[in-house]
Design brief:
With 496 residues, this protein is of the alpha/beta class. It has helices spanning 2-26, 30-40, 53-68, 132-138, 153-162, 165-173, 185-195, 223-230, 308-330, 352-359, 382-386, 408-418, 431-439, 443-448, 476-494, and strands at residues 82-98, 101-104, 109-111, 117-127, 148-151, 178-182, 201-202, 218-221, 251-278, 287-293, 299-300, 303-304, 339-344, 368-374, 395-401, 423-425, 453-457. The chain has a 15-stranded mixed sheet that branches. Strands 11-12 form a two-stranded antiparallel ribbon.
Length: 496
């Protein structure tokens, strides 16, 4: 009888707690979400570029929200929410000279800049083989020493598909100075790079490896630059960068010489992550992290890249989740695990803030149970809208990696069933589409450290990384539902 009474009391208490969590989930404030998002995606913050004044103002705003909502400051003896990160900016300058005419970088050419280059008046060997096997058969007869080896489009594509490093190592051992190729696709690639050239570049630290350096410099030309290079030999180049009148020669020297000069400078930048903590009832348990990046692309001339969906939406979501979790604690519903609220800077520049955090964590990665990362909420994506999907305002994409079997998928699905009942779209869990999702946001540095994660997002909208990504286009009902899902999922993770 006593055991039955205890079981009934336990069941009643669990039901009461569940009801209280449902009430807190329902209290998610659309008003707060909208107010905060309009501020973060305002002209005042100038696109929140990492290291800018707008980024600093954003960090202060988030920290003040944490303070007002009872989230603890973990730094400077409980007085600061700011974790200063250090990033190394790369400043590149390069020029190519063809027939004594100088072209600045991205003026019809590009190269992958990893180290300084100074090659002057380099002879060019043009290679016309249609297969890798044919190239290697002829290689012993080819004089490649102190030359640029220029591959036709077919051979270049074959080497790119197989991997360039082994071929470049072979040529480097034979004394070649650089490799080059052309193709019509470089027009679009260069145009895209020009459009985003206003954005600073940084050394990418997140995989823990030293910066990649190719065995040989790689130079890419548009078909127009290729025509100029081959003009002295009276060779005709079509729109697809094919050379038409070479006869049967599989390789030959051309008259034009190339000069390539590239300089790389490095400059340190400092910017703040914003970290808050709600202590769990059992501090012996591993902690849980909920994260979102608050930076975006800043300003290009007079155009502000507001970054409403990317990722002011995710930022305001974790701010609201923090406030909801504090309300739970105030009602006696303290999570078992300590929760870290991490608003990262530098995601857009290469996951810089999250990469810094995993190397300088508040709690070690071995004591981190799992990560819930939010990157873009509240804006139906082009897939759902273009296909007129009925759930276009009632869904969330998910990606779960739980190799340690900690029950993260169950935590997510149970949360959804108990609250928002969104359609959980697993499109990006398909191996064909997964890699960009896996590596493209702040869960990735944690994943590389062996920490399981859940990522929730709404996908890529038509204004992705454009100045037109503004707060008036957010679906605030969808943002509210997705924020509620984040809260209940986090609650489940923190109480497993």
């Amino acid at each position: 009888m006593r055991l039955l009474t205890l079981l009934l009391l336990c069941g009643t208490a669990c039901m009461a707690q569940q009801k209280s969590i449902e009430n807190i989930t329902s209290s998610c404030s659309t008003v707060n979400l909208k107010k905060n998002l309009y501020y973060l995606a305002s002209s005042k913050l100038q696109g929140r570029l990492m290291g800018s004044r707008g980024d600093t103002l954003t960090a202060k705003y988030i920290a003040e929200w944490y303070k007002q909502n009872g989230v603890q400051a973990p730094y400077n003896k409980g007085l600061s929410y700011f974790q200063s990160i250090t990033a190394v900016q790369k400043i590149n300058r390069a020029a190519l000279t063809i027939n004594n005419k100088r072209y600045d970088y991205l003026d019809g050419w590009q190269m992958f800049l990893t180290e300084p280059t100074d090659l002057k008046n380099v002879p060019v060997l043009y290679v016309m083989h249609n297969s890798i096997e044919a190239f290697y058969r002829d290689l012993p007869k080819m004089e490649v020493r102190e030359k640029a080896i220029f591959f036709n489009t077919t051979l270049a594509r074959a080497f790119i598909a197989k991997g360039l490093d082994s071929m470049e190592m072979v040529l480097k051992r034979r004394g070649a100075l650089m490799v080059a190729w052309s193709g019509p696709f470089f027009n679009k690639i260069i145009d895209r790079q020009k459009a985003r050239r206003f954005l600073p570049q940084y050394v990418q630290p997140y995989d823990g490896n030293p910066p990649q350096v190719q065995p040989l410099p790689e130079v890419n030309l548009t078909p127009q630059r290729l025509r100029e290079m081959l003009a002295a030999d009276n060779l005709i180049v079509d729109e697809d960068a094919n050379v038409l009148n070479t006869g049967d020669k599989p390789y030959f020297d051309i008259q034009t010489r190339l000069t390539v000069r590239a300089q790389i400078q490095f400059k340190e930048t400092h910017a703040p992550n914003v970290i808050g903590v709600i202590q769990g009832s059992d501090t012996s348990l591993a902690s849980v992290v909920i994260s979102a990046h608050h930076d975006h692309d800043g300003v290009n001339g007079k155009e502000v890249y507001y970054g409403a969906v990317d990722n002011a939406s995710g930022t305001v979501a974790i701010m609201e989740v923090a406030a909801m979790m504090t309300r739970a604690v105030e009602q006696g519903l303290k999570p078992r695990r300590t929760i870290v609220f991490a608003s990262f800077t530098g995601e857009e520049r290469g996951l810089l803030g999250s990469a810094w955090y995993v190397d300088h964590p508040l709690y070690s990665m071995k004591k981190t149970y799992g990560v819930l990362n939010i990157d873009m909420f509240g804006r139906p994506d082009t897939i759902h809208l273009n296909h007129n999907m009925p759930d276009s305002a009632n869904y969330a994409y998910i990606l779960v990696k739980d190799t340690l079997n900690r029950g993260l998928r169950e935590a997510l699905y149970t949360a959804n069933d108990a609250s928002t009942k969104l359609t959980l779209d697993t499109y990006y869990e398909n191996p064909k589409y997964m890699m960009r999702r896996l590596t493209g946001s702040d869960q990735y540095p944690f994943y590389l450290k062996g920490v399981p994660f859940i990522r929730i997002d709404c996908g890529f909208c038509s204004d992705y990384h454009k100045p037109t990504d503004t707060p008036d286009k957010i679906n605030y009902a969808l943002l509210t539902k997705q924020t509620q899902l984040a809260f209940t999922t986090l609650w489940n993770m923190a109480n497993r």
